[in-house]
Amino acid sequence: MHSSRTRVRPAATGAYRLDGLAPGEYKLHFYDCNFPETRDHYAPEDWPTLVTVGTGEVGPVSPELARGGVITGTVKAQDMPDGLPSVCVRAVGNNGFAVAFDTFSFTRSYRLTGLPGGKYAVEFKDCTFGLYAPEDATVTVQVRSVKTKNAVLRVGGIIEGLVTSEETGAPLSDIKVDVYDKTGGLAFPVWTNQSGSYRVTGLPSGSYDLHFATDDDAVVASEWWDDQLVRADADPVKVTMGKTKLGVNAALSAGGAINGTVRDASTGEPVAACITATSASREFRRLWVAPSGSYRLGGIVGDDVVVRFSACGSPSVMLATKWHDDAINAAAATPIAVDNGDELTGIDAGLEPFGTYAGQAVVAGSGFPRVPAQNVCASLYAPDGSLVDTTEQRGFSFPVFRFAFLNPRVYTLVVDDCGDADLYAPVTLPATPTPGNGAPIVTIEMPPAPTTCHGQVPTIVGTSRARQAARNQRPRRHRGLRRRRRRHLGPGR
Fold first, then answer.
1. Torsion-angle region of 182 (φ positive above 0: left; ψ -120 to 50: alpha; else: beta)
2. What is the pLDDT along the chain (493 residues), one digit of tens a residue?
3. Most buried by CB count within 10 Å: which residue of 170, 261, 420, 493?
4. Beta bridge partners of residue 389, listed in sequence order
5. Which residue from 246, 235, 237 is spatially nearest to 198, judged by alpha carbons?
6. What is residue 469's three-state secondary structure?
7. Do the domains spanning 69-153 and 157-252 agree at the CATH topology level?
């Protein structure tokens, strides 16, 4: 089916024509696009079958759009009888996508039109002040029908606090405060002002986790309230609608910092790269390196971190990711111990052009054309024996496996049957990536797994006593059969 999109607006008579289509299969989507008088008054419709286009004319394809369902009502604000300056209303379908929306000012009424029949989550939100908590409702609507749903927005809960430096006590401005509810949802973030204070409004009643961080090169260490490194240990802040929670303060430490340069290993030129410092519990920061190739990554709380350097800007995107101390994966990287107040230097990296390796496992002796092996796993190991990546080849559906963005090294490739069945014997061979994306496909013949059992007699390995015990368990009729055959054949046979 074609993924390209072609649009046309029908004439006043409703007739339309799509020209210049390449041969293939197309899916037609019809919707009301009149604006603003009748926008979305008709429910959209997908043509139920694919339309196959050849070299001639196809048609007519003439669906009938039905009048869509309508959800309407009024939205009032507590303590504001004249209404809010701006209220946003949207209907979200079962697929999680908003299918209709409306914004109004002071009129207190809304209208969502052109809805296909079904169940919708209708969300009402204060779009101006943010003082009022959002309201949700579930509405079921049918085409050509009107459902009324009114809502009242009430003043939400408020969290206020002050963010300061742990070392100096000075207020910290431009600190981002993220508020998460227990479902993982994020309220609108706020930033501290010049005096270090912040205020979060419009919160429904409930418990929230607060995270404090900077958006720049981490001049201070981020933390969760109250003085916790990870969210799992955060102390929840309980909020009640219409009330203010005061004193949710944070004192952020300057932490430690690492410094270095990132360059192209082949040319020595500075590289536009991103730096990530990760500990066992969390990721500290990611940022762009300066045009000179130098960087400073601060705000690292006393911890051992693994530093990752990745090319994230043109033309350096052709360079492979690398970890500190010239490691090519996190498992081989040397952790760096960073304590509060440290200013470590010389954490440099030289990034190399990346390569690609591609292969196809085939059944040994299958002739031509080669038969792809079914359910084969390919694992790539670094020179130090650490695992770089694992991928899977699934016969005719995915007949080729591929490893991309590899550093120029000689790796070890192990291809086996994924441990599901003894179909193939494992194959181990060296793998050298081809620079860039155009790697040739290496053919790997998979021999059958060695057979360890023949007929009804098991293979016996062990002491003579174990062998004798195994013999005693064999069916006696075999020995009787041999004696009868000797008597029949006579002496000397």
1. alpha
2. 555 566 777 777 778 888 878 788 888 777 666 544 344 566 666 555 578 887 777 777 777 777 788 999 988 888 777 777 788 898 888 877 666 777 766 667 888 888 888 999 999 988 877 889 999 999 999 988 999 999 999 999 999 999 999 999 999 999 999 999 988 777 778 999 999 999 999 999 999 999 998 865 567 888 999 999 888 899 999 999 999 999 999 999 888 889 999 999 989 998 888 888 888 777 776 667 777 889 888 888 867 899 999 888 655 568 999 999 999 998 889 999 998 889 999 999 999 999 999 999 998 887 777 788 888 899 999 999 999 999 987 766 667 899 999 999 999 999 998 877 678 899 999 999 999 888 899 999 999 887 655 444 444 344 434 334 434 444 444 444 334 334 444 444 4
3. 261
4. 380
5. 246
6. helix
7. yes
State the CATH class of domain 262-351.
mainly beta
Q: What architecture (CATH level 2) is domain 157-252? A: Sandwich (2.60)
Residue that has been written with the tokens 């204060």 in this structure: 126
Q: In this structure, are residues 164 and 170 in contact, taking their beta carbons and an 8 Å threshold?
A: yes
Which residues have a Cβ under 8 Å from the Cβ of 153 and sit 6 or more positions away? Answer: 75, 76, 77, 78, 84, 87, 124, 126, 132, 133, 134, 135
Domain boundaries, the chain: 69-153, 157-252, 262-351, 355-446, 457-489
Per-residue DSSP letters for 37-70? Answer: SSTT-B--EE-SSPEEE-SS--------PPBPEE
Contact between residue 390 and residue 329 where contact means Cβ atoms under 8 Å apart: no
Q: Which residue has the tokens 């995270």?
A: 211
Considering the domain delimited by 69-153, tell me its CATH architecture: Sandwich (2.60)
Gap between the Cα atoms of 338 and 445, Å rounded: 49
The DSSP secondary structure of 253-295, one letter per residue, reads: ---EEEEEEEEETTT--B--EEEEEE-SS-EEEEEEPPTTSEE
Burial of residue 270 (CB within 10 Å: 0-12, 13-18, 19+) is: middle
Question: Using an 8 Å Cβ cutoff, are 402 and 358 in contact?
Answer: yes
Report the C-alpha gap between 407 and 428 in whole angstroms.
Answer: 20
What would you measure as the largest C-alpha separation in the chain, in angstroms?
120
**Was domain 355-446 assigned CATH 3.40.50.720?**
no
Tokens read off for 18: 């799509």
334 to each of 14, 255, 284, 293, 337, how far by Cα in Å?
69, 20, 17, 22, 10
The token pair that represents 439 in the structure block: 């790697």
Q: What is the pTM of this model?
A: 0.64
Paired with 251 in beta bridges are: 164
